[in-house]
Design goal:
Keywords: Hydrolase, Lipid degradation, Lipid metabolism, Signal. With 363 residues, the chain is of the alpha/beta class. The chain has 13 helices and eight strands. The protein has a six-stranded mixed beta sheet with strand order 2-1-3-4-5-8. The structure holds 2-acetamido-2-deoxy-beta-D-glucopyranose (NAG) (8 copies).
Length: 363
């Protein structure tokens, strides 16, 4: 497998991860995982939204998923939500909350183990993804608050629910779509500093709301180098270079989120978090592409920078060698590299502690 290309620090980690899989019988059960954000973590939420324009439940998406099944993941196979769940000892991401709503017999048992609320096209701001009918972070958190009340219905007390949720893992990846929409069409028109401030203060509000609903353990992913996506290279610069303005916004955002979390965790003493700097780690993969077994870091494997992946698009056969599956999203292999980095690396890629340390995964 392509894993042999993984360089030193990840290589050690991979062999340890395999060992820990063998020891899994003795390991404590994985924590409940509640997942929020955008298409990087969506495992089929949008399949259940009538008229949603941000969907991936069609071929060639899922070509490397078991049975080559398009599930709604924006990937050739598993995505980042799955890869993180696997390192926690699960088979894949918990199912979409909207799937569980449609399968009442599974609902109660499943929500105790987690749920995935992430919706492709969504962002931090309510306005982001509105036209695509994506579910905003605000509404994802509202859905989680009903889940909280459902858990309390089962446990019989708010205290018991607090106790359960304090041990759960809250994973969030969002912000990219806000920046893209701002750059494509600033509505309402806002200056760049105003936009940054609104974005970060709205994010703070959402994270505090999750805290009030019982979340205590956070894994937060920053905005990756979206100026270097095949989309940005084709649509913004048109000469295949990275779009520097989008890079600046993404980098600024990751710095701002770091400050936000430092500040918030000093105000409330009882949270633990790990901030995965996907901007830096993806730049790191791009800067040493051969070291990571990647041969193409600029083009989409399926479709191209201008057109989405679909059944009539052309696609590459060496998918593990591409950073990008389609014009926006990482390949299954790139999401695996990211998850391994989140669990096995150190500052500044993941700070102040890595996911293994946060989650007590014994590796
Ligand atoms: C976002 O939308 C929700 C409704 O889902 C609303 O309650 C909230 O006030 C809105 N927030 C802003 C900042 O407009
Ligand atoms: C979950 O909670 C919501 C809001 O309290 C309620 O409407 C819904 O019926 C509950 N679902 C289940 C399966 O108990
Ligand atoms: C917001 O981001 C832009 C783009 O990077 C930057 O030029 C601007 O200084 C930032 N503003 C603030 C207040 O951080
Ligand atoms: C590509 O285009 C951008 C502006 O669209 C420009 O700033 C940049 O210098 C160009 N790069 C190359 C290599 O031509
Ligand atoms: C930290 O949080 C407080 C309270 O919310 C706020 O007033 C302050 O501006 C924040 N500081 C920074 C650096 O974000
Ligand atoms: C992108 O794909 C579309 C649809 O297949 C095709 O028409 C177009 O020529 C491609 N663009 C480039 C730059 O290859
Ligand atoms: C696939 O995408 C191309 C380019 O956007 C479009 O012309 C075509 O109709 C799409 N095909 C299907 C089956 O959706
Ligand atoms: C990541 O966390 C693990 C604990 O699980 C620790 O052993 C390891 O040293 C950390 N990695 C780095 C590079 O700090």
């Amino acid at each position: 497998m392509a894993k042999r290309y993984v360089p030193c620090f990840l290589g050690v980690f991979v062999s340890i991860a395999v060992t820990s899989l063998l020891l899994q019988a003795e390991a404590p059960p994985p924590p409940a995982v509640y997942i929020f954000g955008d298409s990087t973590l969506d495992v089929g939420t949008n399949d259940f939204i009538p008229g949603c324009l941000a969907r991936a439940d069609f071929y060639f998406n899922g070509i490397d998923f078991p049975h080559s099944k398009p599930t709604g993941r924006f990937s050739n196979g598993l995505n980042t939500a799955d890869q993180i769940a696997i390192l926690l000892g699960l088979k894949k991401s918990p199912p979409p909350f909207l799937y569980l709503l449609n399968h009442p017999s599974k609902f109660k048992q499943s929500i105790l183990q987690g749920a995935n609320f992430a919706s492709g096209g969504s962002g931090i701001l309510n306005s982001t993804g509105l036209q695509k009918r994506s579910i905003s972070l605000e509404d994802q958190i509202k859905q989680f608050s009903t889940v909280r009340s459902n858990i309390t219905h089962m446990t019989g007390s708010e205290e018991a629910t607090d106790n359960i949720l304090s041990k759960a893992f809250f994973l969030i990846s969002t912000g990219s779509n806000d920046i893209f929409e701002y750059l494509l069409n600033p509505t309402p028109p806002m200056s760049a500093p105003e936009f940054n401030d609104t974005l970060i203060s709205t994010y703070e509000y959402h994270i505090k709301t999750l805290y009030e609903l019982g979340a205590r353990m956070f894994g937060i992913l920053t905005v990756p180098p979206i100026g270097c996506t095949p989309f940005a290279r084709a649509v913004f610069t048109g000469n295949n270079s990275c779009f520097e303005l989008a890079q600046d916004f993404a980098l600024d955002f990751s710095l701002d989120v770091a400050i936000l979390l430092e500040n918030f965790s000093s105000q409330v003493q009882d949270i633990k978090y790990s901030l995965g700097n996907t901007f830096l780690m993806t730049s790191f993969f791009m800067g040493d592409m051969l070291g990571f077994g990647l041969k193409n870091i600029a083009a989409a494997c399926c479709g191209n920078g201008t057109y989405d992946c679909n059944q009539t698009a052309s696609f590459c056969s060496n998918r593990d060698e591409y950073l990008f599956w389609d014009r926006f999203h990482p390949s299954q292999r790139a999401s695996e590299l990211a998850a391994l980095t989140l669990f096995g690396a150190s500052e500044p890629l993941v700070a102040p502690i890595n996911f293994s340390q946060l989650l007590g995964v014994d590796i």
